[in-house]
């Protein structure tokens, strides 16, 4: 069998067909001439068969590659579409517990039990977020960091140095190392200057 080490890996079917046509033209010219330089008729037939086999292999490989690409794209789309299904299943348990808490409001006058139940649901919710690597951003009493905090106000405060978070208005969250929502904070502007 002939070695094909000089054949390019990224051969396009059109190139193979063009080569085939040129070989056909040369071989038909050879058939018409006496004592041609290409070789015997059996060598030409063997070369044509090998070329035809290579064309078929190339076309099959291209078809397989296209099928693989389509399957991969379909799988990626489906994985993205349903990527959050496990998170949703866990959040449904929180939804169930919120419903139970609302039912308890209508059935009991014991606010202590209700507050305890709501605190449990709150903790359950935070545990689920942590399980999926979504964590609260520490803000209060931290130096202001524009990567994690969004300042909405500055107020004079003698207890903390300037640009220290003294109050968190809205809790921030991050997923792994990416900020999902920055914490909205109030900053200390330091001592109030008397005028």
What topology emerges from the helices and strands here?
Elements: H1 13-32, H2 41-81, H3 85-107, H4 111-131, E1 134-136, E2 149-155, E3 165-170, E4 173-175, E5 178-181, E6 183-188
Parallel strand pairs: 2-6
Antiparallel strand pairs: 1-4, 3-6, 4-5
Helix pairs in contact: 1-2, 3-4
Summary of the model, kept short:
This protein is of the alpha+beta class. The protein is built from four helices and six strands, in the order H-H-H-H-E-E-E-E-E-E.
Explain what the structure shows.
- The N terminus is likely disordered.
- β4 and β5 form a beta hairpin.
- The protein is elongated, with a radius of gyration of 37 Å.
- It is 54% helix and 15% strand.
- The strands form two sheets. It has a three-stranded antiparallel β-sheet. Strands 2-6-3 form a three-stranded mixed β-sheet, with no helix packed on it.
- α1 runs antiparallel to α2 and α3 runs antiparallel to α4.
- The protein has three domains: 69 residues; 49 residues; 62 residues, Head domain of nucleotide exchange factor GrpE (Nucleotide Exchange Factor Grpe, Chain A, domain 2, Roll).
- The chain is of the alpha+beta class.
């Amino acid at each position: 069998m002939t070695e094909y080490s000089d054949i390019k890996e990224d051969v396009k079917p059109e190139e193979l067909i063009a080569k085939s046509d040129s070989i056909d033209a040369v071989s038909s010219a050879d058939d018409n001439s006496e004592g041609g330089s290409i070789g015997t008729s059996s060598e030409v037939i063997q070369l044509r068969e090998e070329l035809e086999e290579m064309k078929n292999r190339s076309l099959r490989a291209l078809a397989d590659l296209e099928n693989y690409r389509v399957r991969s794209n379909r799988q990626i789309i489906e994985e993205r579409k349903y990527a959050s299904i496990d998170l949703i299943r866990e959040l449904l348990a929180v939804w169930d517990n919120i419903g139970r808490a609302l039912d308890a409001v209508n059935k009991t006058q014991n606010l202590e039990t209700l507050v305890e139940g709501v605190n449990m649901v709150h903790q359950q919710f935070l545990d689920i977020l942590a399980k999926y690597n979504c964590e609260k951003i520490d803000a209060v009493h931290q130096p202001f960091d524009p990567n994690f905090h969004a300042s909405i106000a500055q107020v004079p405060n003698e207890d903390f140095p300037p640009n220290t978070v003294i109050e968190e208005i809205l809790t921030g969250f991050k997923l792994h190392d990416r900020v999902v929502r920055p914490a909205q904070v109030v900053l200390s502007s330091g001592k109030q200057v008397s005028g």
